[in-house]
Amino acid sequence: MATVLIPLAEGCEEIEAVTLIDVLRRAEIHVVTASLTDDLHITASRGVRLVADATLDAVIDDEFDMMVLPGGQPGTNNLNADQRIHALLKRFNQADKWLGAICAAPMVLAHGGLLEGLNVSCYPGALKPNEWPEVQFSNDAVVCDNKIITSRGPGTAMTFALTIIEKLMDEETRQQVETSLVIR
């Protein structure tokens, strides 16, 4: 069974976080949500209260196939300010594991030096091309380059989650989940 770590920071984008958790679990992917603090209760960017499965410290040494960062503000800034997140991103990258970031969260990957030479999608204005000349920016809803999957924002969260299913599992599982969601 594939495993995914989703860190939840205060001020994360709730549509992205909940969509990722829900859709990936529909594919029977083991998703672990982790609070950056000792409090498992997180207040998302629009005031929605989320409850994490564990603290980041409790699962930091566990093995996962992928880590996915929800965006939103100030959630993305909180992720970016946490050195444990940067250490995990480097560990996953060095182990050739999947990484994902949506909305403003590709900024965390950029600050970690993980986007150089890659095609990336993100929320408009979250990363300014003139400040990141080594990154190729795309307006596509979802971009997969190397083992990094990025996406534009709340409206692309479903497609982002389905793409993660396809990469971690297979196209058939993606199609089964997509059909059950009545997307088309």
UniProtKB/TrEMBL annotation:
Pfam families: DJ-1_PfpI (PF01965). One of its GO terms (cellular component) is cytoplasm. Keywords: Repeat. InterPro entries: Class_I_gatase-like, DJ-1, DJ-1/PfpI, Prot/Nucl_acid_deglycase. PANTHER family: PARKINSON DISEASE PROTEIN 7 HOMOLOG, PROTEIN/NUCLEIC ACID DEGLYCASE DJ-1-RELATED. This is Uncharacterized protein.
